[in-house]
Design goal:
4-stranded antiparallel beta sheet; single chain; globular; Rossmann fold; alpha/beta
Length: about 260
Amino acid sequence: MNPATLTLDAVAFAYNDVPILDDFRLTVGEGEFLCLLGPSGSGKSTLLRLLAGLESPQHGAIRWFGQPIAGPGIDRGVVFQDYSLFPWFSVADNIALAIAKAHPALTKARRQKLAREYLAQVGLEDAADKYPLELSGGMRQRGAIARALALGSPMLLMDEPFGALDTLNRARLQDLLLTVWQSATPRKTILFVTHDIDEALYLGDRVAVLGTAPAQVIADYPVPFDRPRDRRPLFTSTQFHQLRETIADALSADTLAHLH
């Protein structure tokens, strides 16, 4: 692994005195693609909110390149499940606003041109002038992904970003994300929440499994498959199925342990 650029040390967080994270520890290397798996309510989304600076840990420390995370910043792009586009701006204007934050010296015309290029990457070039409420949930999510990419942040925090998409668009955006990640110099550090083990193994360098809240990392697996990855041979390989079953067993064991 590359040297750790993100560290969570003994982090604790609770909502209304209900512990969500307790003594939570995790390190992520620069340029690493880490996928987070875990049952609903295991604290995955809360973890991303802490990393985004939208919440603060009640105990422990979160450091990004050695500095405490003290609030939101454009160094951390976020894609949450609720799409989070501004409804009073067109889709293109939402993307242009992100570009303006990252590159304030650019002219308005240049920002609009770049915005449409990012929308074309996610297949929304024909929806650039529409407003978010005029789009389907899957289209809004693609717009949110385009906005996160437009920021150019060195860290991307992604909370089930493809969950609302059909199979074809999901595969397309998985490949787009990998292309963006693999072509960037330096590579972006990505934390990607998913419930889909196949998706985690296709995308990730590493899969961390979170147990039932208060969350802990109960299993941590390096993903051994070479890049670039091809779905058909990968998904049919014995090694893929063995690792998939190992991860599924870890999730099932944690669920069963909390039923008693």
